[in-house]
């Protein structure tokens, strides 16, 4: 009995077994995705509007303020237009929705493969992997709704994979392209900045920052030439007014509070405080220095370059986006594309017991599947977002966290 227990424990916890389990899970999920498409009715939300907007673009319209659909104006950056123009052509001007679903199933599986590769490189244990294929809401976002968040999430995880490998220029380029699909990926910017600062120094940070900006300029060039202010105000609208009826995360506050300027400013302040807290106490650790001393060296171009492990890179980037979602003005259901695969990894990095990781995952999944959101479900959404953020911030003895990364890095210097 003891031998059997030891064998089971090894299978569940030894990262070496992940290489055997991951392909089986991907195959099973591909079959499940096909079953979902064939058995579960498609729900129209934004696809028709996307196609109406693309039809105007295809007809030659380049003024962003004039590109609209049934549910409103075009409010995503230019890469969204190019991606959905491609889908517009493939799906007979958006009429072949079944083919669109199959394409999005392919995007989902491709993203899952990248996610699992990131997990394996970071040494994640096998027991985390089933959580990557069990989300009902995530399958819905990709295959039953065809949201652009699924496409943006692919580029987010691809950039994480490239950052893990130390390929900074391709990683920043891919990340910036993802921002060009949906502005939500700007939430990764603080983590991208510190990773570039640590791994590339000032000499590489400046060219990479210019590279990220240039990607946006090139993507938006046709629209910038036509109406620059119109494009920037629509594609990167930071003052958008969200409707209380659609919020997933703040249902438990009153509508008056939700719409208030005070609430918005306080969320922004909390966001800034959390980013600074992680920057000063967690993200800076591979340097072995305090934030102020590293900053001085970095500005003078004297900061050494550090080799960052996959665990550190993944933790830092995922923490950054989860902090942003925790403090977001409003979350909608499609935003789960950025969260679903991040939560198990961050909870593991916080050194939580596997049973607790599964429990938090289940509560989060249940809360995101409540429609419309309720006071209870929204409390659960915020609590599950806060859990990894708080635990990573207060747990100074994580077995797999940034502290160990710092110690390992310093030992090699």
TrEMBL record:
Alphabetical list of InterPro entries matching this protein: Glycosyltransferase_ALG3
Main location class: endoplasmic reticulum
Record membrane topology: Multi-pass membrane protein
GO molecular function: dol-P-Man:Man(5)GlcNAc(2)-PP-Dol alpha-1,3-mannosyltransferase activity
Keywords: Endoplasmic reticulum, Glycosyltransferase, Membrane, Transferase, Transmembrane, Transmembrane helix
Enzyme Commission number, as recorded: 2.4.1.258
Reactions performed catalytically: an alpha-D-Man-(1->2)-alpha-D-Man-(1->2)-alpha-D-Man-(1->3)-[alpha-D-Man-(1->6)]-beta-D-Man-(1->4)-beta-D-GlcNAc-(1->4)-alpha-D-GlcNAc-diphospho-di-trans,poly-cis-dolichol + a di-trans,poly-cis-dolichyl beta-D-mannosyl phosphate = an alpha-D-Man-(1->2)-alpha-D-Man-(1->2)-alpha-D-Man-(1->3)-[alpha-D-Man-(1->3)-alpha-D-Man-(1->6)]-beta-D-Man-(1->4)-beta-D-GlcNAc-(1->4)-alpha-D-GlcNAc-diphospho-di-trans,poly-cis-dolichol + a di-trans,poly-cis-dolichyl phosphate + H(+)
Gene Ontology CC, one term: endoplasmic reticulum membrane
Transmembrane segments: 21-42, 102-122, 142-163, 175-198, 204-224, 261-284, 310-328, 335-363, 375-394
Statement: the UniProt record of this protein carries the keyword Transmembrane: yes
Family membership: Belongs to the glycosyltransferase ALG3 family.
Protein name: Dol-P-Man:Man(5)GlcNAc(2)-PP-Dol alpha-1,3-mannosyltransferase
Organism: Talaromyces atroroseus
Organism phylogeny: Eukaryota, Fungi, Dikarya, Ascomycota, Pezizomycotina
């Amino acid at each position: 009995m003891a031998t059997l227990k030891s064998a089971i424990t090894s299978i569940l916890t030894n990262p070496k077994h992940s290489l055997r389990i991951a392909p089986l899970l991907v195959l099973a999920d591909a079959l499940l995705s096909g079953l979902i498409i064939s058995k579960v009715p498609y729900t129209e939300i934004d696809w028709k509007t996307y196609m109406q907007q693309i039809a105007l673009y295809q007809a030659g319209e380049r003024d962003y303020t004039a590109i609209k659909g049934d549910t409103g104006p075009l409010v995503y950056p230019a890469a969204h237009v190019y991606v959905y123009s491609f889908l517009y052509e493939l799906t007979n001007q958006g009429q072949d929705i079944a083919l669109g679903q199959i394409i999005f199933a392919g995007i989902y599986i491709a993203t899952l493969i990248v996610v699992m590769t990131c997990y394996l490189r970071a040494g994640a244990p096998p027991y985390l992997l089933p959580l990557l294929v069990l989300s009902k809401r995530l399958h819905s976002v990709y295959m039953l709704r065809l949201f652009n968040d699924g496409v943006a999430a692919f580029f987010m995880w691809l950039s994480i994979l490239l950052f893990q490998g130390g390929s900074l220029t391709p990683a920043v380029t891919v990340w910036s392209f993802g921002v060009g699909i949906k502005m939500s990926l700007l939430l990764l910017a603080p983590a991208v900045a510190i990773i570039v600062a640590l791994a590339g120094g000032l000499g590489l940070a400046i060219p990479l920052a210019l590279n990220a900006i240039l990607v946006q300029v090139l993507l938006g060039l046709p629209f910038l030439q036509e109406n620059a202010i119109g494009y920037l105000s629509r594609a990167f609208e930071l003052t958008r007014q969200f409707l209380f009826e659609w919020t997933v995360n703040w249902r438990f506050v009153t509508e008056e509070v939700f719409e208030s300027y005070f609430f918005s400013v306080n969320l922004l302040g909390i966001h800034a405080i959390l980013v600074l807290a992680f920057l000063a106490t967690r993200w800076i650790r591979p340097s072995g220095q305090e934030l102020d001393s590293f900053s001085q060296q970095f500005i003078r171009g004297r900061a050494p370059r550090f080799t960052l492990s996959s665990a550190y890179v993944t933790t830092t980037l995922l923490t950054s986006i989860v902090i942003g979602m925790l403090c977001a003005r409003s979350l909608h259901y499609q935003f789960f594309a950025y969260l679903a695969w991040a939560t198990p990894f961050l909870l593991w990095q916080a050194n939580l017991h596997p049973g607790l990781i599964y429990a938090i995952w289940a509560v989060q999944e249940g809360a995101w599947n409540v429609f419309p959101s309720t006071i209870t479900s929204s409390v659960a959404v915020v609590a599950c977002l806060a859990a990894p953020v708080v635990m990573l911030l207060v747990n100074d003895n994580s077995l797999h966290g940034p502290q160990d990364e710092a110690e390992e890095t310093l030992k090699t210097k």
